[in-house]
Design brief:
alpha/beta, 9-stranded mixed beta sheet, globular
């Protein structure tokens, strides 16, 4: 499949983590990588490494003959309507994503025997489910690695020596869009809610990209999510099963009397106790059921599912406990970057002072605010789309106090060299304000419902900023606005 690249030029579109991971595999199969990127700094770095580079302007203006390239491999963030990619398609040049290329590298056995891919996607819970899956595989003594959207490029995982037998692969909708050939041993769609609609052009296209996780041997869908459940009809998997928080029917995984139960791969097997799951709450249990389904699909025994779930602990910025102060809990769920994730986070606590805001990416917050209004003690909003959330609160929760903490023109902070310091100052003020609304038994919860890049370097920076502000609080900061 990859022989057509030997001795040919391949355009690597985007010099990010995924772009860097392509270089050595391309060289290993005898291809010549050429790098393009919109950033001059990125191209300078690639050039310093001895790579041939071409600017996007050159490629778009036909200063570089695209017909020289046998293939374009795009970063997942590049939209299909990017001029360079449109020009390549017009010229009849195939455009792959890095995941598509990694799939064919694996199928060609460039780095050893073909691996089993367990693919995890969904609007929320991907990383937790991927980590749980990897933990179960470790407990079973199976050589595995968590890779993909979780941070480690798949190609880097394939090149490890000794190599893994199984890949727990987190994939975003972008990555799946650019990876039509992937046929995992098992794949799951956890849930589907409004997110990245500006990139995909609508919910249907976004859901269709997610559904590509269901094209392998076993497809798994979250039955409590109506959109994810409906994707079972689009699945091309040889077998489709589901999981739910409630009592499972035949062919499902679910929960009975506080126990995770498998009725899909056996008549009835207890997999774990609900109390074993981290993070606690419905979202964590759903992720655990999904991880259990994926690993049971490759015949991992129930006892190893239980051991792996007990060993798994929630990662940073994912509903992570930061501190208790004067009877008030502070929780960092900066990874809740869309309304659907924020919903799960808020519903895990009875009384919440909500710290939210950022870039909504076209997602609506009306349904979220209406559903969680009775749990909100107050809301403290930051970021470029704070006014949108404030307006929803005014309509659906008019009795909830709302404070917007601004940093001048938040929409322009991403172009501000001093934005890190400004963002940290805004977060510090937001946390102090939130603490002022809190009393014993309340939870101050960072669940932004929005992306972070208008103010912060990424969601981890936002979470660290929140935690630092929380640790700077004193007892007297609690309840001072009540």
């Amino acid at each position: 499949m990859l022989e057509f690249l030997r001795g040919r030029d391949v355009l690597v579109a985007g010099w990010g983590v995924s772009g860097r991971s392509l270089i050595e595999p391309l060289r290993d199969i005898g291809a010549n990588p050429v790098v393009t990127d919109a950033g001059a700094k990125a191209l300078a770095e690639a050039s310093e490494l001895g790579l041939e580079v071409a600017t996007c302007v050159q490629l778009e203006s036909a200063a570089v003959d695209l017909s020289r390239f046998a293939l374009v491999i795009t970063s997942p963030g590049w939209r299909p309507d990017s001029p360079v990619l449109v020009s390549a398609v017009t010229e009849g040049i195939p455009v792959w994503g890095d995941v598509e290329f990694a799939w064919w590298v694996d199928q060609a056995r460039i780095y050893g025997p073909v691996r089993k891919w367990l693919v995890i996607t969904g609007t929320n819970g991907k990383t937790t489910t991927t980590q749980m899956t990897h933990s179960i595989l470790r407990a079973a003594g199976i050589a595995s690695v968590a890779c993909g959207n979780i941070g480690l490029p798949i190609l880097d995982a394939l090149r490890r020596n000794p190599g893994p037998q199984v890949l727990a692969v987190e994939l975003s909708s972008f990555q799946l869009h650019w990876a039509p050939s992937v046929r995992p041993e098992a794949g799951v769609v956890l849930n589907v809610a409004e997110d990245h609609l500006d990139w995909h052009g609508g919910l249907d296209a976004y859901a269709a990209a997610k559904a590509r996780a269901l094209f392998g041997r076993v497809g798994v869908v979250g039955l409590d999510d109506p959109v994810a459940a409906s994707l079972a009809r689009r699945a091309k998997a040889r077998r489709v099963i589901g999981f739910r928080i409630g009592v499972p029917a035949d062919g499902e995984l679910g929960v009975v009397d506080g126990k995770l139960l498998d009725r899909a791969f056996t008549k009835a097997a207890i997999l774990a106790e609900v109390g074993d799951i981290s993070p606690p709450g419905p979202a964590g249990v759903a992720d655990a059921l999904a991880a259990a389904a994926l690993t049971r699909a490759i015949d991992v025994a129930p006892q190893f599912v239980r051991e792996g779930l007990i060993e798994h602990k929630v990662g940073p910025h994912r509903a992570a406990f930061v501190r208790e102060l004067a009877g008030v809990d502070f929780i960092d769920d900066s990874k809740a970057t869309n309304p659907h994730a924020a919903r799960s986070s808020i519903l895990a606590h009875p009384q919440v002072i909500w710290v939210a805001g950022g870039q909504l990416k076209g997602a609506g917050v009306e349904d979220l605010v209406e559903e969680v209004a009775d749990r909100l003690v107050a809301a403290v909003l930051i970021g470029s789309d704070a006014p949108v959330i404030a307006a929803a609160l005014a309509r659906h929760a008019p009795e909830v106090p709302v404070v917007e903490v601004r940093a001048g023109d938040d929409a322009l902070m991403e172009d501000d060299p001093s934005r890190s310091e400004k963002a940290d100052a805004v977060m510090a003020q937001a946390v102090r304000t939130a603490a002022g609304f809190a009393s014993r038994g309340d939870t101050v919860l960072l669940a932004p419902a929005a992306a972070s890049l208008d103010m912060f370097a990424d969601y981890t920076h936002r979470g660290r900023s929140f935690a630092a502000a929380v640790h700077a609080l004193e007892d007297g900061d609690i309840g001072r606005q009540l």
